Amino acid sequence: MTTGSTQGHEVTALLDAHRAGDVSAFDRIVELLYPELRRLARRWRSGPGATLDTTAMVHEAYVKIAGGEWTWQDRAHFLSAAAQAMRHIAVDYARSRQRKKRGGGEAPLPLQDRDAATTHNLETILAVDAALHEVQAESSRMVRVVECRYFAGMTVQETATALDTSVSTVEREWREAKLQLQRRLRPAGRG
What are the sequence ranges of the domains in the chain? Predict the structure, then answer.
């Protein structure tokens, strides 16, 4: 078993090879990071009103990332891109489910640390995504923090590493993001 640091160096070398044109390097990266991708995707497993199961989420993220124009710097950056892809997949899936059931009428739940998929609330996922589009104009880093923390379930440390910033910056951005999103998610007529 490789350590995180050893694995990080190996992934970085494979990313360099991928940028240099080695198309097989991408598959080797995914193979190395598959357990971590499954951990991120596990938050979306089936349950009442669930989005996608773990394997489906990883495979969808693979397709989305493989088909995009990405220039990852290192392991953390790759995982951050996976978190972003999983957000888009979950939102697309939630929209599809909502179209099928038309309605639902549930008010958005309060935003909690790392709980988007664990609540399996399709309405909340869509509401958070819509609010993030508004927040994007103020701070793209704040959106990235939310993608890592809320959608991918990363810890503060993992988020800091993925975004190449400090833990204190992630903590500050996360606090501010929660305030911004809670304000935007507050049901009409309250507060």
Answer: 4-185
